[in-house]
Specification:
This protein is of the alpha+beta class. It is built from twelve helices and 13 strands. A hairpin with a 2-residue loop joins strand 6 (255-256) and strand 7.
Length: 356
């Protein structure tokens, strides 16, 4: 009996020593030599990455400043060149396509009505729905009811429905357009329909021709609904480098390598507060055109935001872009929500304070 206890204590001691060794090795594994050169506290950044290493579903975390990657880590053997489903980060890309469509003359103004683009061949709109403007849709204030953020979500019912456009437009309006924020993938999807009908191109073609190819990237994919319209708010897959380039594009006011891809005025307008969200999610209270807007530690920021913890966060005054992606597939809504919260909390309360 005594020998068994002694053996158990020895094994326990070995495990503890091994654990302490692993902790030390993990911390020693992180080094970001460019951090101090770019006025970022390296020790604080290391601490943030050590904490991030404990997030079981985190694929990667990247921080860049002045167009230079300061820290880039891939966790749990996540491949750096893979496509990742970034969920509602898609909406911010769709917003950029709208800015391009305005510049190309496909659409005249965000004040144009939905009825200018959606005719009876798509859906026979009632007068009140026909009057909904593009701006109502991109500020999540269309007047069409939707349940998505919170304990109950109709997202799955919508995706599984035989006709995604009809599912949205069959709903009776419940509030005056523009009067309140109501987060809705339905609104975002209608923007994709409008872009398609206005341009004669599907949104993947618009994105490829006028955005991604000009950014010198093939790291993207997108998927359609049952009617062949690309989902305006979800199902875009991006590589980490494409996400970083897209964030840098907005940091550089729509300019990439000397070419103006997105109008500067659109970058400003789409990332400016247009509606109050009533704190529907933490860390912000303002919303632009499919961009979330916040402030922390003296820095204003805006970010693309996806279910389960997908982020492209831009801090203009610090010239910083932060990108993070989590796995969400096969997880419960509660687990995905926790991953979202802990990742954004890490970015806002650990990475941003390290920036000087």
């Amino acid at each position: 009996m005594k020998s068994s206890i002694s053996l158990y204590l020895c094994l326990l001691l070995i495990v503890l020593i091994s654990s302490m060794s692993c902790k030390k090795n993990k911390k020693d594994a992180y080094a970001f030599p460019l951090a101090d050169q770019y006025q970022i506290d390296e020790e604080a950044l290391i601490d943030a990455y050590e904490h991030a290493d404990d997030f079981e579903q985190l694929h990667f975390l990247i921080v860049s400043r002045n167009g230079v990657i300061i820290s880039e880590e891939y966790f749990h053997n996540s491949p750096p060149d893979s496509l990742y489903d970034v969920r509602s980060v898609t909406k911010s890309v769709t917003s950029s396509l709208l800015g391009i469509a305005l510049e190309k003359g496909f659409i005249d103004s965000v004040d144009q009505a939905m009825g200018d683009f959606i005719g009876p061949d798509i859906y026979d709109l009632e007068e009140d729905k026909a009057a909904i403007t593009i701006k109502n849709l991109i500020t999540m204030s269309s007047g069409i009811p939707w349940s998505e953020i919170g304990a109950v979500s109709e997202f799955g019912d919508w995706v599984r429905s035989p006709n995604q456009v009809n599912y949205i437009l069959d709903k009776d309006m419940t509030y005056t357009p523009g009067s309140q924020f109501n987060y809705s993938d339905g609104n975002a999807h209608l923007i994709s329909v409008i872009l398609t009908e206005a341009s004669g191109m599907n949104t993947l073609e618009i994105a490829g021709t006028y955005l991604f190819e000009k950014m010198d990237t093939e790291g993207y994919a997108w998927y359609t609904d049952n009617q062949g319209y690309y989902y305006g708010g979800v199902t875009m897959d991006l590589t980490p480098s494409t996400m970083l380039k897209f964030g840098q594009l907005f940091l550089d006011e729509g300019n990439y390598m000397g070419e103006q891809i997105i109008p500067t005025a659109w970058v400003t307008e789409s990332t400016t507060n247009h509606i109050n969200t009533n704190h529907i999610i933490p860390f912000q209270n303002d919303y632009g055109y499919f961009w979330w807007i916040g402030n922390a530690y003296g820095h204003d920021y805006f970010f693309a935001n996806g279910y389960g913890g997908q982020f492209i966060l831009i801090i203009p005054d610090a010239e910083v872009v932060i990108v993070a992606v989590n796995n969400w597939i096969g997880l419960s809504r509660d687990q995905s929500g926790m991953n979202w919260t802990q990742t954004l909390d890490l970015i806002v309360n650990e990475v941003i304070p390290a920036i000087h």
